[in-house]
């Protein structure tokens, strides 16, 4: 059986990237840094090994770095769509919305979130059965 391959593009098609295999993690992050960087109340994301993601050359992307954190997001300079980010622990982080956009509006089942990270920092309560990590501990995620 071949590993899953996700071909991802921005809204206008100027930027494309590929993710292969399974992500290292898939979760909801509630930390203030992610909320600020992505301008969302909750960041729904997958984190990948560098070996499993072919990201575009940074020269064709916009690059936004938070001035007070070691966090960056990259996206299309033409349509403005955020494609991925890099923050602790330095792995590519791809928002679930990028996968939904490229999969008929659905998140592939293999990428379903497994927990809520930094839940103590939340700005809204989410009533689901996933574990709620109060801090940065990675409940149920193998290294």
From TrEMBL:
Pfam families for the chain: GFA
Coiled coil region boundaries: none
CENP-V/GFA domain mapped to chain residues: 6-120
UniProt key word Protein transport: no
Keyword Zinc attributed: yes
Keywords: Lyase, Metal-binding, Zinc
Database matches in PANTHER family: CENP-V_GFA DOMAIN-CONTAINING PROTEIN-RELATED (PTHR33337:SF40), GFA DOMAIN-CONTAINING PROTEIN (PTHR33337)
Family: Belongs to the Gfa family.
Name used for this protein in its record: CENP-V/GFA domain-containing protein
Species of provenance: Salinisphaera dokdonensis CL-ES53
